[in-house]
Protein: Conjugal transfer protein TraF
Organism: Candidatus Berkiella aquae
Amino acid sequence: MAKATLKIMLILLTFYSTYIEASWRDDHERGWHWYERDEEENEKKIEEIHINSTPVMSYADKLKKYREDGEELRAKAVMERTPESVRALMTWEKSMWNNAEAFGSMWQAVLRENPEFDYSVTHPTSQYSRHLYLDEQKKKVKLAIDALKKKYGLVFFFKENCAYCHAMAPIVASMASRHGFILHGISLDGSKLSEIPVSSTDNGLSQRFNVTMVPAIYAVDPKSGEYFPIATGAISEQEIEERIFQISEYQSSLGEQGKRHAP
């Protein structure tokens, strides 16, 4: 009896060992095949890291890439001259014009909703509106000049051998007379100009005003010594008036900081 029981147990053990061996060989998730599972997990992790670490292109980089693609297609079309390369270039250019048209439409829509960004509102381009704008500008320029002449006189620096000084002298004299400015000429070489009847030889004023080129026009307050340059070189009377207006607006925005004093 004992021998029979022992024999049955040996048979069962042999069957169980065979089953275990077969299961181990068929199961790749356990046993000596552990490295296959780890390799798969590592590949997934590496792929996730690569996706997460790939930098997102900025809009500027995207636009740059878009232009570079177009240049490459254009170069290829010119060099190859094949129907395929030319068609590819034409496709890219069509997309570019479509994008430009869409952007332009959006720009105009935003301007209609935000007129404060529309340059043509304050600087009209139509002929009728342009005349109105110029008339308003002339009024502003006249007001600026009228305000300036109450406090400041004009000083004109010149030289005898300066052709531009001779050309500018009658222009400055005419502008000063028309607007009622007191005009005084400063000669850097002791010469005289018939268009500038009141003048004197430079006694160091040009150095204090940092006059490095002539002709030069300065506005000077004789009471306080305040001064500022208006123009250097040969310009028209209208340009002188516009310079005065621009300087007036600029100094108004600066307040007292915009003024300079002669030592």
Summary: The longest strand covers residues 226-232. DSSP finds nine helices and six strands in the chain.
